[in-house]
Structures are given as structure tokens and as C-alpha cells.
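Summary for the steering committee. The consortium agreed at its last meeting that each partner would contribute one worked example illustrating the joint modelling workflow. Our contribution is presented below. We chose a case with several input lines so that the handling of multiple components could be demonstrated. No manual editing was applied between input and output; the record is shown as generated.
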Amino acid sequence: MQLFLVNYDTHYEIEQLSRMFFRELTVIKTDSLPQLPEDDYILIVNKSGSFDISLCLKGESHSTTLTVDPQGAKEEMQLCTEAYRLYEKATGAGLPWGVLTGVRPVRLMRNLYKKEGNIQNVINKFKNEYLVSDEKIKLCTDIFNLQKPVIEGGRPNDYSLYISIPFCPSRCSYCSFVSTSVKSAGHLMAGYVDNLCEEIRYTAKKAEEAGLKLKTIYMGGGTPTAITAAMLEQVMKTVQECFDLSQVEEYTVEAGRPDCTDLEKLMIIKKYGADRVSINPQTFSDNVLKAIGRNHTHRDFLRCVADARKAGFDSINMDLIAGLPEDTVEGFEKSLRGCIELGAENITVHTLTLKRASNLVIRNEEHHYDDVEKMIAKNSMLAKYGYKPYYMYRQKSTVKNLENVGFSQSGHESLYNMYIMEEIQTIISCGAGGVSKVVGPGGEIDRVYNYKYPNEYIKDFSAILRRKDEVFDLCRQYGFQKD
Ligand code: SF4
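What follows is the complete predicted structure of the assembly.
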């Protein structure tokens, strides 16, 4: 599909919206009427104060004109709403999130609530202006209400620590994270861990001087359990020595892959103070696991969960993905029921995302994703078993433009997940691929990036410590201090 924009430069939102309906989209900007192709196209002509919108789809033409209301929403939003209605009519299918393209709908709801002071006005805006479905508005409102006390209870000098261990036993076909396989980068692990420990020590010292208060710790990656038990112990011992863990409210370690997580590593994680692990089946089907390049079976996953319980964990998250190649609606439902039967305290349901860096996209594999909405609809069964949605985010290139939602049993909601997704607390990151975000008292956000890959992180480690100084300079500028 080609999208022609005539005399219109502000095109981000309309491009994103058009892409949600028509995946393969080429955008062409011109200042005069173009030669139109014989096959599918969209033509949007800006006439200063009005827009002509035409869509040619499978030989049929559809068109409308928008007269911009100067008292109404932003011009670009008005254009998106009008285009959405035309696309929906022409394709016969709407989008559950309407014209909302942003990744944090709950944050949008909260910001509008701050302005409006009345949640019903915000709900009306979601429904009438953004064209969001009733079901998604309810999801958003439930999460907004559940998060309210957590968000309101935060203080400016609170922070969370993210520790990145960007190695994995193998690369899953849908993965777009910074993660290197142990096979190709195993030789870097020991040096990486030494530097990481130094960065953690430096961060602890600087955070103490800056008067910051550590609330949660999240060790992710990659898969932290991909490193050896001795290296994992080295990192966790460093964390224990550097911070007063008795004051930390939550400490999570991703132990996502059963093919590198055993009882010994889980005991180390528990011994050094973590109280929450994530063990991720993604699916309960061995066929699907094989299709996505995970080197473990469902039986390995069950063994891993049993080991985590044996090690003493009473807060386990399990990630599932809706829309994986070879999966079916029945298969997805079986996976969801399986997590419930295993007594997972958290279940996080992701929708498959087709990112450019993933092997699924690189290999241009042909799959049908038509059933993904039916899979996501199965989440409704979770309420019956006491799970409530507590955080949510959306990503670009997600199949059918759907969302990722964390569900939790009461009292097991992950604070870190809420902080990071809602961007309401400073997060200081250590390790390759880490991004520190300093959140100012007025909600302003400054980002400081570490190197992305382990080799550059090791090679230019002094730059990493200098970047940490930048993080704490920002904290000082915002006036964070001990209370
Ligand atoms: S386990 Fe996670 S980080 Fe590692 S390759 Fe798979 S999706 Fe990527």
C-alpha cells in the first residue's frame, strides 16, 4: 500500500495509524498531486483547513473530506479519526485500540485525568475521540485504578536498579532484545561480570551520596541464569554487599529459560535476597517451542518451576506469548490454564511482536496471525481464578496492534513493572544494553545510555562510569536529597 501525503509534513500519527491497517506501507510526501498507481493506495491532500482523504483498495474507491474544527482536538488527531472511519468502512474491520498508537495507554489516561479531574470525562474521550473499544477502556481503567495508590505513594528520590545480563543459551526467533548467545559470546562472560560488579559498586556509592532510596531491583537481560552459577553468585553477592536489602521492597531475577536454570542457580538467587523470579514457558507446546528456537521442552519448564518452589520462591511470574508460529487458540488456552494450575502468582501475556531485528522477520517466515485476537480474548478466564490486570504496554509492530498485560494475584503485583512502564520513578541501569531514566519532580525524563553490546561495554568500560556520573549529576540538578 502506498500512502501519498500532499502538502502535509506532520505525518507521524497518520502513518502509524495507516500502518496498523495496512502493514506493508510506503509513505510518499509531495507538494502536488501525484501520478496514482493502478493498485492500492491512500491519498491525503491537505487543503489548509480541510483534508481530502481517498482510499483505493482492491479496485474499490472510498473517499471523505474532513473540515478541521479549530475548537476541536489537535488537527492530526482529527485527521486520524476521519481516516480511521474510512479505513474501517473499507476493510470491514476496526482496531480495538482505535486511533491510539502510543505504547502507554494507562499513562495517557492518568495524564488526562490530571487535567480533567474526572475519570468519566477521560473515558468519554477514549470512546468518542480515540475510538477505543469498551473492552480495552475497561482494561485500561482497571489498571489505572489498581496502580493509583502505588503511583501516588512514590517520592522523587526513590529509584529502582536494573541489572542487565545480556546472554542467552540460544536466540528465540521472535527476539529483538540485546542478547548474545552463550555459544558465540561465552568467552566474554567472565570479563563482563567483573565489570558489571564494578559498575554496581560505583552506582551504589554514588546513589548513597546523592541521597537516593532504592525501592526495587530487577535483574534481566538476556537471561541472567545463562551465566555460570559461580558468576551469578558473584553478581548477587556484590548486590547484597552494596545495598541494604532489608529496605528494598522487591527483588526480581529473570530465570526465563529452563535450559539454563537449575536448582543450584535458583538457590543462589534466593540465598542472596531475591524474592521473585520469572520462569517463562511462552507456550506449553513442544512443537511451538521448537518452531521458535527455544532449546527446552515443556517438561524442562515444569522441572524448573518445581525447583523454584523447592528453593523457596512464593512469587513466580510466567510469560506467555499469543500468536506464536504453529500455535492455535486451543494451544494458547491450554498454556494459560497450565500456568493457572501451576499456581503462578503472576502471568504476563504478550502479543507477538514482529520487530525487524528478530529472526522471524529477517527470515521472512510466512505465518498467519489471524487467531491472535481470539487468543488474547482467553485472558478473560483469568479473573475467575483471582488474577487482575496490573500493568500494560503496547509495542510497535505488535500483531493486530494488541497489547501486553501483566496479571497478578492480589499482593503479588510487581512494583518494578509498574514503575518502568508508567515512567514514574528513576531507574538506574547497570550493564550492556541498560538505559538509565532519571524522572524529575515534574515528570520530565532524561535518559543516559550504556553501550549496547557486551564487547563494547568491556572495551570502553571507563566511559560507562563517566555516563553514571551524568546520571547522578542529573539527580543533583533535580534536587534529590536524603529524607
Ligand atoms: S530468552 Fe528472551 S532475551 Fe533470550 S533470546 Fe529468548 S526472547 Fe531473547
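Residues 2-91 form a domain with the Double Stranded RNA Binding Domain fold (CATH 3.30.160). The mean pLDDT is 92.
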